[in-house]
Structure formats: C-alpha cells, structure tokens
Amino acid sequence: MPEMPEVEGLVRFLRARATGLAITRVQVAAIAALKTYDPPVDALVGMRVDGAERHGKFVGLRLDDGAHLVFHLARAGWLRWSDVLPATVVKPGRSPIALRVGFDDGSGFDLTEAGTKKSLAVYVVRDPADVPGIARLGPDPLGAGFDRDALAALLRGRRTQVKGLLRDQTIVAGIGNAYSDEILHAARMSPYALAATLGDDDVDRLFDALRTTLADAVETASGKPPAELKDAKRRGMAVHARSGEACPVCGDTIRSVYFADTDFQYCPTCQTGGKVLADRRLSRLLK
C-alpha cells in the first residue's frame, strides 16, 4: 500500500507536472471506485489544475473552479503517468484502469488497481474535508505542530499496541504497515509494546525514529516519477518485507508475524530482547 512518503512523492510530481494544465477528458472505468456524484465527474473537463496536496494517504488535485479531485490508492492501487496519453477509450472491466485523466498538452494519468479486491476510491468534492476519510484524519507526523509532546499526548493512557496505534489514521495520518515496521525497528521497540506503558525515553526514541524515518523516505521519494517510487521504497526498507534476511543493524535474522491478510517484520535482537514473537493465529501475544 502506498504510504505517506510515496503519496508525497506522487503529490510533488503532479504539482510540478500538472499545475496549469487543463483537463480535457475524464474516463471512469471502474464505477465502484467513484464515491461521489455532486459535482459530477464530467464537470472537471475544462478546469485547470491549481496545485496538488496530500492529506494523509490521500492525493488531491486542486482545480481552478473550486473543485478537488481526490483519490486514495488503497492497498493495490497506483498512478501511471503518460507524457502522451493513449487515445483509446478505456473499457470497463477490461483492464486494471479505474480512472483516466487527460490534459490539454496530451499528457495524463491512469489510476490502476491490481487484484480482485477493489478498494481504490475517487472523489470529486468542493472541499477535501467532504471526504469522510480525510475528515477523520489525525495529525500529520511531519507537520509543523507535531512535536515530541504531541506524540506523548497521543500515546498517553492508550492500552493499544504501538504498532496498531501508528497505523490508525484517526490517530496519526499517513503511516501504514511498512513504515510502522521501519519506525519501530529504528526505535528499538517491540510492535506489541503497549502505548500507555512507554516511558519518557521510549517516547523520545519513538519520536526521533518516526520523524527521521519518514523525513528520509520523503526525501528519497521527492523528484522521482511515479514509475520509480515503488522500487525506491523497497530498497529503503531495513526490515519490512525482508523476513529471513540479516538485520542491517545487528545481523540477527528478521522475523515475521502473520495475520489473516497481512504480516509484519521485526528484528528480535533490536526490538524484543531476543524473543521471537508468537504468531497471533496460534497463541497469545508476547509483550
């Protein structure tokens, strides 16, 4: 799933490439992906792009008539940019393309989604806050007002595992499974640690790891075209999706914990005092 750094990379690319261009066509190929009807999607034709914005994991194109084209790529979605967009009409159900947007210089992009479980979402709204997922977002962890004390306040009193807390978009916006793995590894913290039990030193480490990990990933993503962002993300991972490999910090073997539809990775030596965490499917969680 694209997370904050990749979404920020897409936003910066679109801001540089699409600002000032007029939309000449919008083709919806996956009707279920379009979540709004007022304003109608056809109303975007003729509008110019004023800029691009990120809201957590949502991408928003700001248009000159006060409308916003907002989309969430979900687990298997992506944006495919073309300097020369194909002239063919996208046929519903015949390709992974959910939405095609064309501009007056001949360029444009497709929103695509792989797999059979379709969750990609597209909204045409007058205000990004009209998108329910954006209205519920917690603070942006790279925002100017998000400091160590702000994180401590979010953690305080929560009998929630810190891994799940970092992924909860209503608490902190933009972090998913991959970067929560990376943040916790950098903080030398168990994914199963309870937020309410973290001491001052723990919060210090977690905040530093959060800001550094995300800022470095955003810097890596910045300036890259969409086609290169996924590979850049994979190359930057220390533990996520690297089960069985050596930890780059201590050399221990990176382990996984599997769930029904996902998994996460961690280093026992760096994060759990050498303990191998139990699989949630088989036994109670180790703290």
TrEMBL record:
UniProt-listed Pfam families: Fapy_DNA_glyco (PF01149), H2TH (PF06831)
Keywords: DNA damage, DNA repair, DNA-binding, Glycosidase, Hydrolase, Lyase, Metal-binding, Multifunctional enzyme, Zinc, Zinc-finger
Coiled coil: none
Domain Formamidopyrimidine-DNA glycosylase catalytic: 2-96
Entry-linked InterPro entries: FPG_cat, FPG_N, H2TH_FPG, Ribosomal_uS13-like_H2TH, Znf_DNA_glyclase/AP_lyase
Catalyzed chemical reaction(s): Hydrolysis of DNA containing ring-opened 7-methylguanine residues, releasing 2,6-diamino-4-hydroxy-5-(N-methyl)formamidopyrimidine
Domain spans labelled FPG-type: 238-272
Keyword Zinc: yes
Domain of life the protein comes from: Bacteria
Family, per entry: Belongs to the FPG family.
Record protein name field: Fpg/Nei family DNA glycosylase
